[in-house]
Structures are given as structure tokens and as C-alpha cells.
Amino acid sequence: MVGFVITTNHKPQTTNLIMATHVTATKTNWWNGGKSPFNLEYGKLMMWYFLMSDAFTFGAFLISYGTIRFSQNTWADPNVVFNAFPGAGHTNLPLAFVSVMTFILIISSVTMVLAVHAGHNNDKKGVTKWIIWTIVGGLAFLSCQAWEWHHLITGEHAVLAGNHLEVVGQTTQVNPWGRLVHDAQALTQALNNTPHEELVKLVGIHNHEMSHEALLKLPDSQLKGMIDLAELHVRETGPIAFGGFFYGITGFHGFHVFSGVCINIVMLIMTQKNVFANRGHYLMIEKAGLYWHFVDLVWVFVFLCFYLI
Hints:
3-stranded mixed beta sheet, 3 strands, mainly alpha
């Protein structure tokens, strides 16, 4: 109740104005059956938010790559770039090694599912076993990626660089995967303009019987006679952007795999110390599983963009 007093110069008069305010609180029932869908654990919700933002980051990278990729007249052929396999020498095995990498990552996703399932059953031994196998899978994938990068960077590929030939690897500065050069006259002229050191490298691509030091002592005329231009498959240099995008995006994904391995190692230590057993649940394993599955899913799109298209 609120009272007001009104006075005038002629006749004092007090007036009480009674204002009644009624507030009715109404409870709205948003859910009438089963377990409420809004009852989501805070940590899991934050993990979903993080994964969503990370998906935007990967999406931006891949869209940028696609924009540059399809704006070029030529691009690196994945069947040529990724045709090597450890221990297979110069055998042409297109996409064989990256298929092994993908298989390893998929299997690690399966073991992560089994670890989460064991956690739902409060099975400490099962969680430990499958987390270990997931870590092994992640480390195996990173090892494969390290070999692939090393092979590309230190690779020996003959390219036509201006008026001479060079031997280069795939870096962020040079792309040896341009068009094949079929002009025999241009190749012969370029060979004649090639410096001694590059001639030694050209011979060394297929000649593994003589050491690099022994080849350095040979005269240019003899080195040129040892080079079969048709066997070298000389190419023009390709768009430089390929190297930057490939190492940048696959490296960014590799960093996520490494982070996932570190997270799983922490989960393994916490499991061994009965942290989750004392809590009565293994919810943290499920959160780590969400991250690991996201990393596996992103690889599908990376694989599609770089190795298949």
C-alpha cells in the first residue's frame, strides 16, 4: 500500500491513493517426460562449444585451400605426389601409405569408443587397455606423418627452373609438381646450362652405385652422358601455394592428434590413480573421446581435399 499527501494553499487536504499491485509467479514446465534434455553436464557442453569453434577454423582453412586450388590451371596430382611407401623404393604405389595412415586413425577411434564404453561400465581395466591402444594408434599416425613429410621435403625431383635443371624437394618455397616437360630440345639445352653440382644430383637420383663425392670428381661431359632425360620425368615448377597449404593444414591436424595423445596420457594416469573410480564415473573419458572422434572426423575432410581431389 502506498500513500500520497496532496496539500493546497487554500485548504489542507490529505488524500490517500491506494494502489494495489498483484504479481503472480507462474512456473512453466518445459519438459513433461523422461530425462530432461537440458540437463547436460557443464564440461561436456563446453567441449562441444570448443569443437564447434575448432570446426569453423578447419573449415576456413579448407575453404581457403579449395578457393586457391580451383583458381589454378594446374595443381599437384595426388597420385604422383603421394605414391611412395616405406621400404618399397621407387615402386609406384599411389595413395597406399596415406590409406594405411587413415586406417590407423580409424582403428584408434574404435579403441576410443571401447574405452568410453568401459568407462560407462566402471571397468577400470577396460578403460586402461583401450586408452593405451588409442595412444599407440595416435603415435603411429604421427610417426607415419613424420615419414611422409620427411620424404616430401628431402625428395629428389628434377624440375626445369628457367634455363637449367634443378633437383628439389617439396617445400613451402618450391613445388616440383608442375606439368611434365615434353620438349626434348628445351630439355637438352637446359641440361647443357645446368651447373656441376646440379648435374651430380641429377645423376644421383637413379645412380646409387657411386657416392656423391665420387660423382663430384667426374667432369660435366661424363655426368651429362649418364643422365637419361626421359627417365627423369622433368616437370615445370607448380603453384607454390600447394606446399604452404599442405604442410599448414596437415600440420595443424597433426598438432591436434598430438594434443589428443597428450590428453589420453593424462586420462590414463588419472585412471591408474583411481581418480575416476573414486568419483564413481568416467565422464572425463567421454569428453576426451569427443575430442578424439572430432580429430578423426576432420582427417576425413583433409584426406578428401589433399589426397583424393
